[in-house]
Amino acid sequence: MSVLDKFLKYVSFETTALEGSDTAASNPLIYHLAQEMLLELQALNPNEISINRFGVVDAKFYGDPSLPPIALLAHMDTSGACSGKDVKARIVKYDGTPVKLQEGMYLSEKEFPFLKESLGHEIIVTDGNTLLGGDDKAGMAIIMEALEDIVKNNVNHRTLEIIFTTDEEIGLDAKHISREIVTSEYGYTIDGGDYRFVSIESFSAYSMEVEVKGRSIHPGYSKDKMVNASNVLIRFHQALPEFLRPEHTDQKEPFYHLSNIQSCEDHAKGDYIIRSFEDAQALQLIELAKLTARRINDDIGYEAITLLFENQYHNMKVELDKHPEIQKEYEGVYAKLGIPFMYEAIRGGTTGSQLSFMGLPTPNLGTGDYNMHGRYEYVDIDQMKVMVSVVRELMLA
Ligand SMILES: [Zn+2]
User: Fold this and answer.
1) Rounded Cα distance, 84 and 62, in Å
2) What is the per-residue DSSP string for 171-209?
3) In three state form, how does the secondary structure of 163-179 look?
4) Cβ proximity of 350 and 191 under 8 Å
């Protein structure tokens, strides 16, 4: 089976991540693909293989003990932002003209300029009704293709640990990994984006829950008495810097993002995420939010607003900078294959953002998957093939 056949098989599985759980994968359908991967890996005679209750599959192939063992990771779940049911993948040779996905829906360079890079390549597109699932089934196909080649042809390799994770899209994948089982010294996630991208930086991420206790009085008799919780939440929101929102920020700029509101006169709740590449800066944003809440509370005359912060993950660069040998390794591989890689600071988190702080430094490498999480998603088959050679080389390094 080629990397393309593998990819088409994996995207035929519906694996949408749903609401998180402490005891199981978020969607029982994910286990079907996990079982498939267990079988495919077993067929390659691993020295150790396991699956845990979250559906995370971990297979080890012992190799040259003089080289550090590495993990290669990809996630099996897909984003809940768009349906992943009955994905109808279609292969198109991209010739520069807009690709029709369905009536009135086109994939074009005008909207997606990076499509230029795929000129003359075969790309895989959707029928416009679902996402494709290349995030991260492209990563899975790339890893399996490289591994199969090495194992079937008896090529000497280092000790390899293949980990297919669950619930990455809802930020739970690192929590689902049984850290005791992982024996590698470091890892690589193969997940999404331009195939030349190497990511060693991610956001430092915090959640902020804003709780407002109002004072509800009959609106006809509430003069100088009512404290409308909805209005307090709006006031708090507007007091935060307007231009530090995702829609106004780019590259390494930080933001506050309001993701959800529930409110009435008596009670209001706003869910925010705070993102920055510098932990110190994220902490300053937290301090500013606290100060804002305090001032409003002082003005109202009681503790109407309370804030709850939680760290979600850190910028993995902090940990990766301690391991120049990893950088040397992937730089060597790209140089050997003549691929001009680029560093990309991810305005998000990866599995590595958490794993790197759990003792498994893990940069991310791109796959050739674009426009993820939606109907315009596509995978460049030629770019995926280049990544097979990169991953294969890493397995030997
Ligand atoms: Zn992904």
Assistant:
1) 35
2) T-HHHHS-TTT---SEEEEE-SB-TTEEEEE--EEEEEE
3) EEECCHHHCCHHHHCCC
4) yes
- Give the Å distance between the CA of 213 and the centre of ligand 1: 38
> pLDDT for 372-396, tens place per residue?
999 999 999 999 999 999 999 999 9
Backbone angles phi, psi at 221, to 5 degrees: -130, 35
User: Who surrounds ion ligand 1 at CB < 5 A?
Assistant: 135-136, 191-192
- In three state form, how does the secondary structure of 134-160 look? HHHHHHHHHHHHHHHHHHHCCCCCECE
Location of structure tokens 């399996």: 144
Distance CA 368, CA 378 (A): 8
pLDDT tens-digit map of 93-133: 999 999 999 999 999 999 999 999 999 999 999 999 999 99
Residues making up the chain, counted from first to last: 397
Of 367, 387, 393, 386, the residue nearest 11 (C-alpha): 367
Give the HSE-up count for residue 359: Cα atoms under 13 Å, Cβ half-sphere.
Answer: 9
Q: Give the integer Cα–Cα distance in Å for 292 and 300.
A: 12
Q: How far is the CA of 236 from the centre of ligand 1 (A)?
A: 33
